[in-house]
């Protein structure tokens, strides 16, 4: 619907605009669940992963992209496809049964009118939580006499410098003052709900994390482990990291600094960070409302709406959290629709795969979560258990190998 109808978080009219972060997270397919999902999507010919690889920027062991180049690349591929016609307008209600195959992939910023239409058809209210955006800083305004380049534990995969991240050190005195200012700064209140704002645990505003205790940030996004300050002989008490946000390296986002603070207070508080005292901001942080449906209650195992089976849902609105997870559910929905059209039998990915684990979570096969459904990233806890006793690293490697072997058999069907 953009740019005809804007949202609270997007700033361009481009398809596949990355809002919260430019990172697709870890690319380690042996030890990290999202890395396994990356590899599965690559093997399944995902357009999104192909473009992400083409638009990659240094990020240590993570897959991060130049967000503008990535968006342009995805949009170009879609617009050039002979079977796709891009129409710019708002869809404010679910199509009827006579429409044929329909896929709703309206994302977390689904318009209120469409969300209301979904509720009317399903007879259940859509759920919602609030998400935050981290600020972006111009590289030239960062003081590298104070800050330095280094990846945590010197993981310099795909890096052209000494490390993928810029690190800003805080001693205990500066850290304590910084936390105090975070807790006292005014912030925007984007909800009229009487109950506490339902933030997503995987993307909490920095000041909400600080509210949980004075040391919370030091054990979260500001943890100093795996880093050493080349400017001094002293180990930093805490470290703020910035990750490259575009190919040219002119923009860096402040990692983990999603915030609901008012813009002027963001500038004042974030300039207290050593190395960012003269920072100029290309984008301020912000907060927006994310909508998702209660998928285990209203979707079948192939992502069809129980109340109207010609409609499927995909992406973050289904209750997966993250770019890669949203991509995965979109890929599965597309394959299921294609099989329907070709009158092929339903063929879900094996439960041992990351794709199958995600699908099982949102369609209610994982009974542990069915009655307490909340958005979730891919994680090894969603995979079937390995019963043999082994160390965590070996267990994860075993789960990963099993997943990719199972995926191969599924793709070859």
Provide the descriptors you would attach to this structure in a database record.
2 domains; six-stranded antiparallel β-sheet; 31% helix; Elongation Factor Tu (Ef-tu), domain 3; FAD/NAD(P)-binding domain; 413 residues; alpha+beta; three-stranded antiparallel β-sheet; single chain
Number of strands: 14
Work out the radius of gyration.
Answer: 22 Å
Oligomer: single chain
Say which CATH homologous superfamily of the largest domain is assigned.
FAD/NAD(P)-binding domain
> Which percent band covers the strand fraction?
5-15%
Q: Biggest β-sheet, characterized?
A: 6 strands, antiparallel
**Biggest sheet strand line-up:** 7-8-9-10-6-11
Write down the CATH class of the largest domain.
Answer: Alpha Beta
Give the fraction of residues assigned to helices. 25-40%
User: What is the 3D shape?
Assistant: globular
Total of helices: 12
* Structural class designation: alpha+beta
Beginning-to-end CA distance, first to last residue: 37 Å
How would the blueprint of this fold be written?
Layout: E1 23-26, H1 33-43, H2 47-54, E2 56-57, E3 62-65, H3 67-80, E4 102-104, H4 112-122, E5 127-133, E6 136-138, E7 148-149, E8 165-170, H5 172-184, H6 206-211, E9 238-244, E10 251-254, H7 263-270, E11 281-283, E12 286-292, H8 295-298, E13 304-305, E14 308-313, H9 323-341, H10 354-362, H11 367-370, H12 392-411
Parallel strand pairs: 4-14
Antiparallel strand pairs: 1-3, 2-3, 5-12, 6-10, 6-11, 7-8, 8-9, 9-10, 13-14
């Amino acid at each position: 619907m953009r740019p005809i109808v804007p949202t609270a978080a997007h700033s361009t009219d481009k398809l596949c605009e990355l809002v919260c972060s430019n990172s697709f997270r870890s690319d380690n397919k042996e030890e990290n669940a999202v890395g396994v999902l990356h590899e599965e999507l690559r093997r399944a010919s995902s357009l999104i992963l192909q473009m992400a690889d083409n638009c990659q920027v240094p990020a240590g062991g993570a897959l991060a992209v130049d967000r503008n180049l990535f968006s342009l690349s995805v949009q170009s591929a879609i617009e050039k496809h002979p079977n796709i016609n891009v129409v710019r307008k708002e869809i404010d209600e679910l199509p009827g049964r006579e429409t044929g195959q329909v896929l709703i992939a309206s994302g977390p910023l689904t318009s209120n009118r469409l969300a209301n239409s979904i509720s009317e058809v399903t007879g259940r209210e859509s759920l919602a939580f609030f998400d935050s955006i981290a600020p972006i800083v111009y590289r030239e305004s960062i003081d590298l006499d104070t800050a330095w380049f280094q990846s945590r534990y010197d993981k310099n995969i795909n890096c052209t410098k000494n490390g993928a991240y810029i690190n800003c050190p805080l001693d205990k005195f500066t850290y304590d003052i910084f936390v105090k200012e975070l807790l006292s700064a005014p912030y925007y209140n984007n909800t009229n709900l009487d109950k506490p704002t339902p933030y997503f645990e995987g993307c909490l505003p920095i000041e909400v994390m600080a509210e949980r205790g004075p040391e919370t940030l030091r054990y979260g996004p500001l943890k100093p482990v795996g880093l050493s300050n080349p400017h001094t002989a002293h180990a930093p008490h805490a470290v703020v990291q910035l990750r490259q946000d575009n190919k040219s390296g002119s923009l860096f986002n402040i990692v983990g600094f999603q915030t609901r603070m008012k813009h002027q207070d963001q500038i004042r508080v974030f300039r207290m960070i050593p190395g960012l005292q003269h920072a100029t901001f290309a984008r301020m942080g912000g907060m927006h409302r994310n909508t998702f449906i209660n998928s285990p209650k209203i979707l079948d195992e192939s992502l069809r709406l129980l109340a109207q089976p010609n409609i499927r849902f995909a992406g973050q609105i289904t209750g997966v959290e993250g770019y890669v997870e949203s991509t995965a559910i979109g890929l599965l929905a597309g394959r299921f629709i294609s099989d329907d059209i070709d009158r092929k039998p339903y063929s879900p990915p094996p439960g041992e795969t990351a794709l199958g684990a995600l699908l099982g979570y949102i369609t209610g096969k994982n009974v542990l979560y069915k009655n307490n459904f909340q958005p979730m990233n891919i994680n090894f806890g969603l995979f079937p258990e390995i019963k043999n006793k082994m160390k965590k690293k070996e267990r994860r490697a075993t789960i990963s190998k099993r997943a990719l072997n199972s995926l191969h058999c599924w793709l070859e069907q």
